[in-house]
Predict the structure.
Amino acid sequence: MTQHSPLSTHHSPLTTHHSALITTIVLAGGQSSRMGEDKALISVQGMPLLQRVCGIAASCADTVYVVTPWPERYQHLDLPNCQFIRESPHSQGPLVGFAQGLTQVKTQWVLLLACDLPKLRVEVLQDWIAILDSVDDDAIAALAHHSKRWEVLCGFYRLRCLPQLLQFINQGGRSFQRWLKDYSVEILPLSNPEILFNCNTPEDLTLLRDGS
């Protein structure tokens, strides 16, 4: 694995040109076993998490795919410009769901997001998108690096990574971190790690609501 130096951000508005080069995939296929209820439907500040994340995703890309085994569960949500991709109900993890979504993508870059990112900020994503043109040609992804791990469910992947990804999955691989070890990845600047907060447990939800 090759890690490149963090890219520098410059605060410029997201142009139509940039949004046309990006597709967003939102993963909503987790079992939410630690939460005890569907995380995607948990309301934070009066809005279900999936709806909030999809709204941010739609501000960054012309096309948003929601990969989930249960499209019917979310049909009632206000998800403008979002298309559902039905994932196998026998969930094999987020890497497989991502690969399934990636087969539908036409753009050079894909923004991958988990559905449980309540502190996600659109301006941070837009700053990252604005610097994708500066990513080294060898890099298959541009991701934040935090707590000694890649933040794999809030970052960018080149469409051309799909053949390598499918090969890894067909060989039994299910870990983003293990897959990325063999490839060049650009480090995105992360001035506020709080935006990557995952709401996984009732305790996380209590912390979130107490702090909001």
Q: What stands out?
A: Confidence is low (pLDDT under 50) at residues 9-17. The longest helix spans residues 49-58. The longest strand covers residues 22-27. The CA atoms of residues 24 and 96 lie 16 Å apart.
